[in-house]
Specification:
Length: about 70
């Protein structure tokens, strides 16, 4: 069972692959589409340390994947 997906920019300079770092990095490259949803629903952890940058909405994840191709 899959209960989440992490999109993370690959960094060859480090072996650490934790959940922090450059996750959801495409939001800044596509601010007029997926970036709007990201700003309103995912980026909350920048303002509140009790939040984690995750998303379980299939529609957003599918749009994000489409941007990768």
């Amino acid at each position: 069972m899959i209960n989440g997906v992490i999109f993370q920019k690959k960094n060859n300079n480090t072996l650490y692959r934790g959940v922090d770092g450059e996750n959801w990095y495409l939001n800044s490259e596509y601010p007029e589409t997926i970036g709007l949803y990201f700003d309103e629903n995912i980026e909350k952890s920048w303002f509140e340390s009790n939040y984690v940058d995750v998303c379980y909405e299939d529609s957003f994840i599918n749009k994000y994947i489409e941007c990768l191709w």
